[in-house]
Amino acid sequence: MDTDNLIAHARARFDHAAAKRVLKEKYQGKLTFAFGGGMWKAGPDLITLLRGRSEIDIVLLDLYENPVRVNAPQLLQQAEHRWKEQMTAWLIEYEELNRNR
Fold this sequence. Notes:
Elements: H1 3-30, E1 32-35, E2 38-41, H2 44-51, E3 57-61, E4 67-71, H3 72-99
Antiparallel strand pairs: 1-2, 3-4
Helix pairs in contact: 1-3, 2-3
């Protein structure tokens, strides 16, 4: 390989890594949602916590460490919906990014 090819290859890898970071930041932000007077981040931690609770109304700390009384089944439904929606969209964009690489 000559120097030009090495430089082009290095730039392509850097651009791909940067695009992946931007994509991650984009979808991490979309996982945040408001519910019941608090801000929540949909993810495995919140979903697992809510699935493990038998109470209907519970008090949880939101993203800003504020105690919020919420309806657990409704919050779980919102969190699961947001998680599935954003992970699917992220996967589609990620696969497209890899195809265009």
